[in-house]
Amino acid sequence: MTKFSIQPESSTVNWTGKKILGLHTGTISIESGYLSFENEDLTGGEIVIDMKSIIITDIKDPKISQDFLDHLNHDDFFSTHQFKTAKLVITHAEKTEEKYKITGDLTIKDITNPVSFITSVEIFTDFLHALGEIVIDRTLYNMKYGSGKFLPNLGDKLIHDDFVLQFKLIGQNSMP
């Protein structure tokens, strides 16, 4: 078995949230994590996200950006004062040509739901490089603000239920 420890300072997670009249983008940091391999095949792993590290990249006005960040940290969205981390636990990985179909359990705000996504993984001796994208339905994690599922007639105030995390993970073999 080989275990690659995720290097938070070298890894990136970008987020995108869409609404009727546009979108917002930003980043969020990985706190810790690892990916496990058996005979060079991905078998499991865990990624912990630091929810207090949310950054907004598309709003240049400092006051508007801070107001939006405060709203994301509030109970309408991520409740970061109470839930400081989110976690993905990989429960299964199936290799398809050069990529993996990953299934796992994603926990946000102490609510866990299954997720699946495609990722590419390359191993270079003692280093790992993984790229992928996860689409998450925020309403499954009790984030109903601006959702057409729960609030009718929102018009141009509607916020899409799905948000996207694009990630690049860099890992180092922790069991050479």
From TrEMBL:
Which InterPro entries does the UniProt entry name for this protein? Lipid/polyisoprenoid-bd_YceI, TTHA0802/YceI-like_sf
- Can you tell which superkingdom this protein's organism belongs to? Bacteria
> Which positions fall inside the Lipid/polyisoprenoid-binding YceI-like domain?
3-172
Q: Which PANTHER family match?
A: PROTEIN YCEI
Question: This protein is called what?
Answer: Lipid/polyisoprenoid-binding YceI-like domain-containing protein
- Annotated organism of origin: Chryseobacterium angstadtii
